[in-house]
Amino acid sequence: MNPNEIGKKLGIGVRVAGRIAQQRAQERAAQAASAQNSSPSSSPAQTSQQATTSHPNPVGRPASIPEYAEKVREIGKTSHKYTRAAGRGLGGFIRPFSRVGGILWLEVTGFFFGLFALFFGINFWRTRASYANDPGHWRLLMAVTLTGIFAYLSVSAFWRARRR
Question: Which strand (E) or helix (H) includes residue 118?
């Protein structure tokens, strides 16, 4: 299942559940108000018990599960238009920031690759004299290789940032 479909269905479900909860709260408030108006001598415990036991079917509320499903489908048909429009508006707002963020990311990574190249370059400079005399000349070769790799990555990151 596509993550976008999951998000759509979850959003529709949350909106429908919110509307149902709002309707039930309004029903209970109306029942409590009518119970208080009709019998002022009854206690609050009796009115809350009456409000929870009787659930009349108000106008506009589906009576069965298939009718709920039909309402969810109707809401889903119209709500995706607003979601898509909001997504496009947000995308248009974020696009310039994403471009600048990408350039900044390339420059920061290029800087850190440059630091690594500098570190391995200093290591190369320290071990350059021991290349011919020391049996551990592999350290010099590793320093040269890593200096070259990180220098390339640093320069290419700055070059890509400049091209954007």
Answer: helix 65-127
Q: Please answer whether residues 75 and 133 qualify as being in contact, where contact means their C-beta atoms are separated by less than 8 angstroms.
A: no
Residue for token pair 């429908």:
16
Nearest to 126 by CA among 142, 110, 113, 115: 142
**Are 142 and 105 contacting, i.e. CB atoms less than 8 angstroms apart?**
no
CB 150 within 8 Å of CB 120: yes
Question: How is 3-68 classified by DSSP, letter by letter?
Answer: HHHHHHHHHHHHHHHHHHHHHHHHHHHHHHHHHHHH-TTS-HHHHHHHHHH-----TT--SSHHHH
* pLDDT tens string 30-81: 888 787 777 655 455 544 444 444 455 555 555 567 777 777 777 777 777 7
SS3 140: helix
For residues 63 and 57, the answer to whether their CB atoms sit within 8 Å is yes
Both tokens assigned to 68: 């709920």
